[in-house]
Amino acid sequence: MKVFQHVQDLGDLSTALAEAQEVKRDRYQWKHLGVNKTALLIFFNNSLRTRLSTQKAAMNLGMNVIVLDVNQGAWKLETERGVIMDGDKSEHLLEAIPVMAQYCDIIGVRSFARFENRQDDYEERILNQFVLYSGRPVFAMETATVHPLQVFADLITIESHRRECNGRPKVVLSWAPHPKALPQAVPNSFAQWMRQADVDFVITHPEGYELDPLFAGNARVEYNQMKALADADFVYAKNWSCPGVTRPEDYGKVLDDYHTMMDWTIDQRHMDVTRDAHFMHCLPVRRGMIVTDDVIEGPRSLVIEEAGNREISATVVLKRLLESL
Ligand code: CP
Fold first, then answer.
1. Fewer beta carbons within 10 Å, N or C terminal of the chain?
2. How far apart are CA 325 and CA 305, in angstroms?
């Protein structure tokens, strides 16, 4: 594997999930793979879980790790070609990428959607420049449109609880309100991965928030949230801004004042229509907006287990990338 961005990059998903179980049994058994190899983790945006879990995964595999916060201490980077650099940006990404590649063997990139131009975001301009110009294996640590390390961890978490369900688990991805415009990376990846997983998958959101078919495919969409949640085994809550599928001019917008959307906040009333579902969220989460305190703190909440499984998903992915060197 030279690039990790989409579920297909892992090949057979059940083999990858079995590998995750193997990592869980002993996460240090491939320590020889990373000796004298360096992972460079580049953050254009903030992070808690991705930063820590990916470093830990690299250490599990015996790697050295360099973390670069591009916006704190590095030269400010220009990312567009053909511009006259007479502003505050001192270095171009097209020099910076091959320079950074001199010092490492594998590169992880976090670069969120900018919401300036839908095409730029959905073409993954930043990530693809790393793929094209670094000459190194590259993996997404949440990019403009995807967050595969997160949803791989989420799927590992669902698999751990599959046996508690009565048959094939029903997994519901539910939009929830938020005061700020958030990217679509997590819901895009969640839809893409759940469509490949052995689950009954349903998406619920207010009209106008339809995910790009590239990720949602023919997944079932139910606009009535309560109807969607009925008999769910797993409720995955997440906010996302307008993906601009039907109205490109609305891309990246919050379509309605969140005060009018608080019925979508996951509370006990929502959980009561499920089949005693587990509550899931990628974190960080805004309590009182996405979910109420009692639900996230309750016995069916898996949010900490999901975060723990970030180390497992990252170990599998880095192991596969090391094996490709
Ligand atoms: N879920 C997730 O990626 O968390 P961070 O943004 O803190 O890395």
1. C
2. 31
Probe residue for ligand 1, chosen from 44, 48, 302 as the CB with the greatest number of ligand atoms within 8 Å: 48
pTM: 0.97
The burial class, CB within 10 Å (0-12 / 13-18 / 19+), for 2 is middle
Nearest to 111 by CA among 125, 98, 91: 125
Are domains 3-146+310-323 and 150-306 of this chain identical in fold? yes
For the chain, the domains span: 3-146+310-323, 150-306
What CATH superfamily is the domain 3-146+310-323?
Aspartate/ornithine carbamoyltransferase (3.40.50.1370)
Spatial CA neighbour of 79 closest among 38, 125, 139, 114 = 125
Alpha helices in the chain, H assignment, sequence order: 13-25, 49-60, 93-101, 118-122, 125-134, 148-161, 185-196, 213-216, 225-229, 268-271, 293-297, 303-323
DSSP track, 26-44: -TTTTGGGGTT-EEEEEES
Among 69, 157, 282, the mutation site with the greatest number of ligand 1 atoms within 8 A of its Cβ is 282
> Which residues contact ligand 1 via a Cβ below 6 A?
47-50, 142, 150, 282-284
CATH of domain 150-306: 3.40.50.1370
Q: Tens of pLDDT along 119-177? A: 999 999 999 999 999 999 999 999 999 999 999 999 999 999 999 998 999 999 999 99
